[in-house]
Design brief:
The chain is an alpha/beta fold and 294 residues long. It is 48% helix and 16% strand.
Length: 294
């Protein structure tokens, strides 16, 4: 089977694929195939409906569920193509390179303040999974114990950051990483969203971006490789395009655009999008609070 790549992370193309290399299929899902390219590194092959993301290639394929691929299959890669198990070839030459970049924090954050209140209301009404527990008081469809812990720990983490207490912040980070179900637990997704906002250049909390390095170290020890990889990238300010678009819209767009971009984030996974969005909104609350305190 021959497939065409639609887009590719420009840094992945520059760094990993500059010379031929090998890997193994790590995991296969309906929307993505993950390839282990090293002990702690993953390359993601996404379906055509996915947004661009770090270490990812978007492939012109509706779903991977019928591809016949299985974990452990050998993978050969170079700048021109990715060959899996000698039966599937992905042509990389047509791919559009993606270099995702977060926007800078605005000089005037009055629009952000209004949009943040609006987006928080949307998350409360439409959020799924543990994130809904962060925005409302009766998460009837959630495991209440998990929701209570997530609510307590995320609030405590944000309070520690607001008070400049790094040891206490790390204590709560350690309780959040790996908290929840699945390959990207709710606590991990929340931290990815939070790190995206802490990495906004010019933001009042920009100095706290260094927390990302500590988060990545803890994640390597206590969560899944897929989730740890996302946290490692977020620590560098590298997140998927839908999160970049949400940050951009919250800072200066109208309500219609905010609703559209938030809705696209909420579509990520079964509940990951809601947890990612909760982290983004919490990060902006911190930024606004720090600006007022200054």
């Amino acid at each position: 089977m021959h497939l065409a790549a639609l887009s590719i992370d420009g840094l992945l193309e520059r760094d990993l694929l500059r010379v031929p290399c090998r890997g193994l299929v790590h995991s296969v899902f309906e929307r993505v195939v993950n390839v282990a390219t090293g002990r702690d590194q993953l390359l993601t092959l996404a379906h055509r409906g996915a947004d661009d993301a770090p270490d990812s290639v978007v492939v012109d394929l509706a779903a991977w569920s019928g591809s016949g691929l299985a974990p452990g299959a050998p993978v050969q890669m170079d700048r021109a193509q990715i060959v899996i198990d000698d039966c599937l070839c992905i042509d990389l030459l047509p791919a559009r390179p993606w270099f995702g970049a977060l926007p800078a924090y605005p000089d005037d954050d009055s629009i952000l303040a209004r949009n943040l209140a609006f987006a928080s209301g949307l998350l409360a009404r439409h959020g799924r999974g543990a994130a809904a527990a962060l925005a409302c008081t009766s998460p009837s469809r959630l495991d209440r114990a998990l929701a209570a812990v997530l609510r307590r720990e995320t609030r405590a983490l944000c309070e520690a950051i607001a008070e400049g207490d790094l040891p206490r912040a790390l204590e709560h980070v350690g309780r959040l990483i790996g908290l929840g179900h699945g390959l990207t637990p709710s606590g991990d997704d929340f931290l990815v969203g939070l790190l995206a906002v802490l990495n906004l250049a010019g933001g009042p909390c920009h100095a706290w971006r260094s927390l990302g390095e500590r988060i990545a170290e803890i994640a390597d020890r206590q969560t899944h490789l897929i989730s740890a990889t996302a946290l490692r990238q977020a620590a560098r300010g590298r997140v998927r395009q839908r999160l970049i678009d949400l940050c951009d819209a919250l800072q200066g767009a109208g309500r219609a655009s905010v609703g559209l971009t938030l809705g696209l984030v909420l579509e990520i996974g079964s509940s990951s999008g809601s947890d990612l969005a909760a982290g983004v909104l919490a990060g902006f609350e911190l930024q606004l609070g720090a600006r007022v305190a200054a």
